[in-house]
Prior knowledge:
By secondary structure, the chain is mostly helical. Among the domains are: 45-202, Serine Threonine Protein Phosphatase 5, Tetratricopeptide repeat, CATH 1.25.40; 299-371, no CATH class. It has 16 helices and six strands. The chain has helices at 2-18, 22-25, 35-38, 42-56, 90-93, 102-124, 133-158, 171-177, 183-198, 216-233, 239-254, 299-302, 325-330, 336-341, 378-391, 395-408; strands at residues 161-162, 180-181, 282-286, 342-345, 350-353, 373-377. The strands form three sheets. The protein has a two-stranded antiparallel ribbon. The termini are far apart.
Amino acid sequence: MRNIFLPIIAIVLIVSISSCSKTFLDQTNPNGVSVDNGYQTETDIATGVYGVYQALRSSNCVGEGAQLWTDDRADDVNTTDNQSNNGEPFQFTAFSLVASNSYLQSHWTALYAPISRANIILSVIDKIPFASSLTKTQYIAEMKFIRAYMYFNLVREFGDVPLVTERLTSTEKATALTFRAKREVVYAQIIADLKDALNGGLPIVQPAATKGRVSLQAINAVLGQVYLTMATSIGGTTATDNFTNAKNYLLACFNQKTFTNLSDIPFADVFDVTKKSTNAEIIFQIVYKQGDATYSSSLARSNQAKGETINSLFVSQGAGGLLTKDLLNEFEVTDPRLAFSVKYAPAVSGYYITKFRDASATASTLGYGGNDWILIRYADVILNLSEAYLGLADNVNAIKYLDMVRARAAMPSYAF
């Protein structure tokens, strides 16, 4: 009897399945929310904007610890290898990068993460009702600035790169759009985004409560840096025009400063965790939270050599951020920045970085520091201005701005 019923049950199941509607079988992922369903309110957009900023924090992107793509490629720091001289990180210092380097892959992906997130916000923001149109306009400006800033990093490091300014909604679309665009095209998009951001109603300076977000100072500074980079790296018949544009935008940023002289701001104050939200020299920074296990800074403890306590209460067993003799020799003998920035540690027989400090009780012996990672400050802008004037053969103004930085360092005026 059992053998008779089994075929009957099987037939019933087959008929039942074949008669099911397609929607019964094509179920959506219960653990995933589509972009269009995920962004319905102004609050949803605000959360998405925070997510774009959050992506900047990664050391694979532009957050603290990103020196593998910058200082480690120079002769400023010593990289110690506890395992092998052939490890992937050391391909950077040895200028022997191979295509399979996983660190490079992580860096490439991390630079595109804020771009992808910004493109998503920009694709849905016009569909969302806002209590104030200014809020919406400012969000758009912030997203365009971050997209431009990421592409500025990409084009300087990789040259021609895929240029994607819209949300990727399918594999086919991604394949069609992700081809390397000429760097001139990438620069044109960077400039277009930054100029749009200038008209986005953002404040000249972000107040203490919103430090770390984009300001007009930051937009003008980056526009100036973009034109300066084009003038020096692309050159050609447009070099003079690019130097002129660099000068104009850098001057716009300089004229937005809220201090009188750079020398009025002590060098140590730039890195003082108690002044990071009010220091007038800092233009754009990634904010870290003192005492927080997840969102704190590790700059102080990571740069502290074994046996030292000037940076952090954390008991380090490492060498810290060791400097090379080449960099030490760049400091003039009477430069007061030297004593604040570096210290000799007998335990490691070398000099380590001390300008990032947080030995507070709040940071604790775990070293959960409150140092912000500074991306742009006025010393950068002033030196960029000096370079722009030099490119325009205006030595008088080039030296004028150079001397502003030298004056803060208690150095004599430059003579040529």
